[in-house]
From TrEMBL:
<protein>
    <recommendedName>
        <fullName>DUF4221 domain-containing protein</fullName>
    </recommendedName>
</protein>
Length: 384
């Protein structure tokens, strides 16, 4: 009996050793990530427009010209539901369209110095006034308005009292120390700056790093912020009516072309120094299922820019050499992929629809084929 018992033990032990032998272990296959076109939709409009936003409730897409003054609303099949152009005259004049997107189902335009105007079916249906003199020197890539409780949140405009001087380092420092997002009480109209860069940010050092273009995305109670010209994401969590800084995520992007910082004393040299190249930009953060996609252009070095003129051909030759990519992160911010390419003719990725598809408009000048209208690509994040 003992010999049989020992034989069984040895047999089991041998099977365990054999099955766990390093030579026989199957290594887990490394996952690959790609963005594939699964469908395309044609919009019957002869002209160039970019897809800017998507309303989840009505499932409408918002497209606009570069100036944001003319826009289309289309459905999932590309049918035009509304074609409108803002006017600088009349009862609801839009003198500056510096931001455009959906807010509570309405097409909303940032129209300083008035504030935000809401439009439905081409008619103004409301507004959010900013109750202090303010100014803005840039067009916002994303509208950035959202609502929570009794507060409305939006990018904080510059106060009119701010000393704007692009040749002084102190101006850039003051700009970066300002609140990035402001809240407004829907009942009282009181405003409060509620989100700033963390003190640990390198952007707050005594150097000029660039002109900030804040772009942020909400995912539940989490807010993800990009300042555009650095490969980093600042993570905040909703706390009451405000946000608390949690951490900074550095995106590993091979061949990223950084801006060249200058001292405060040489602030007037910043743009001249960086015009020699095309610095990288982190332009958006998309939520796609269980993943975050950090959208970026890597940039072009001074050598790569030789022979290219950004002012020629509408900048198409430069864009062709510096296309859109994505880095993929899981919800714990582990980076699982980088340099995942978008189709070469894709405009800046802005939209994820209710089906989890990334929808981008096609840049006609970057395509080898001609189309009778605007083309929207529907992309899926594939994991193999």
């Amino acid at each position: 009996m003992k010999s049989g018992y020992h034989f069984c033990l040895l047999s089991v032990f041998g099977m365990l050793v054999f099955s766990c032998s390093p030579n026989e272990q199957k290594e887990e296959k490394e996952k690959t990530y790609s963005l594939e076109i699964i469908d395309s939709v044609q919009v019957d409009y002869l002209g160039e427009m970019m897809l800017l936003d998507y309303d989840q409730n009505s499932e409408k897409y918002l497209l606009a010209t570069d100036s944001y003054y003319e826009y289309l609303e289309v459905n999932d099949e590309g049918e035009i539901l509304l074609h409108n152009k803002f006017s600088e005259e009349g009862t609801s004049p839009v003198n500056q369209a510096l931001g455009l997107g959906y807010f509570n189902g309405n097409v909303t335009v940032f129209n300083p110095p008035k504030g935000y105007y809401y439009f439905k079916d081409s008619s103004k249906v409301g507004e959010l006034s900013i109750p202090y003199p303010h100014m803005s020197f840039m067009m916002y890539p994303k509208l950035g308005m959202f609502e929570s409780g009794n507060k409305i949140y939006y990018p904080k405009p510059w106060p009119e009292t701010m000393n704007v001087n692009f040749e002084e380092g102190e101006f850039y420092q003051a700009l970066l120390k300002m609140p990035i997002i402001e809240s407004q009480d829907k009942t009282t109209g009181d405003t409060l700056g509620i989100l700033k860069l963390p003190e640990t940010s390198e952007l707050l050092s005594d150097e000029v790093h660039g002109f900030p273009i804040p772009v942020y995305t909400m995912d539940g109670d989490r807010l993800l912020l990009s300042m555009w010209f650095e490969p980093e994401i600042y993570v905040y969590k909703k706390a009451g009516d405000g946000f608390e800084y949690e951490k900074t995520i550095e995106i590993d992007i091979p061949d990223w072309v950084p801006t060249t910082s200058v001292s405060f004393e040489n602030a007037d040299q910043f743009f001249a120094e960086n015009q020699k190249k095309r610095p990288g930009n982190l332009t958006n953060i998309l939520v796609v299922g269980d993943y975050y996609l950090a959208i970026y252009n890597r940039g072009l070095t001074e050598d790569q820019m030789k022979g290219l003129d950004p002012r020629a051909d509408g900048g198409l030759s430069v864009r062709r050499k510096d296309p859109n990519f994505a880095a993929v992160l899981d919800k714990d911010f582990n980076q699982v992929a980088t340099n995942v390419p978008f189709p070469i003719a894709s405009n800046f990725p802005m939209v994820v629809n209710n089906q989890g598809e990334i929808v981008v408009s096609k840049v006609a000048g970057l395509s080898e084929t001609e189309d009778d209208g605007i083309i929207l690509y529907k992309l899926k994040l594939l994991i193999d």
